[in-house]
Amino acid sequence: METPLEKALTTMVTTFHKYSGREGSKLTLSRKELKELIKKELSLGEKMKESSIDNLMKSLDKNSDQEIDFKEYSVFLTTLCMAYNDFFLEDNQ
Fold first, then answer.
1. What is the C-alpha R_g of the chain?
2. How far apart are CA 34 and CA 60, in angstroms?
3. Paired residues of 29 in beta bridges
4. C-alpha–C-alpha distance, residues 58 and 75, integer Å
5. Which phi and psi angles does 29 have, rounded to 5°?
6. Contact 38/53 with Cβ under 8 angstroms?
């Protein structure tokens, strides 16, 4: 039986692969794939402007190959988790 944390990890991995490979490599997200993932999987995605997505892509794409690999995606999720944690800490004070 999967624990809640294992389910969360599985969801993060399967979500990446749900969108990767639609354009090009199955192991990376293009800008278009990243945009679609953010818009469909994160409520904040609906509020993001094109320029914000472009800036996010640039900041995540550490090797400047115009694609987001799983490691770069993981950094995004880690940063997002830290922001959620900060929000909940502030909310509880």
1. 14
2. 11
3. 68
4. 13
5. -110, 130
6. yes
Q: Which residues pair with 68 in a beta bridge?
A: 29
Long-range contacts of 9-12 (CB under 8 A, 24+ apart): 12/74, 12/77
Q: What's the one-letter identity of residue 58? A: K
What letter would DSSP give residue 72?
A: H
Residues in contact with 77: Cβ distance below 8 Å, sequence separation at least 6, in sequence order: 12
The tokens of 59 are what? 């900041």
Cβ atoms within 10 A of the Cβ of 23, count? Answer: 13
What's the CA gap between 86 and 46, in Å, rounded? Answer: 22
CB 19 within 8 A of CB 29: yes
Tell me, yes or no, if the pTM score tops 0.90: no
Per-residue pLDDT reduced to its tens digit, 1-55: 899 999 999 999 999 999 999 998 999 999 999 999 999 999 877 787 888 888 8
> What pLDDT sits at residue 29?
96
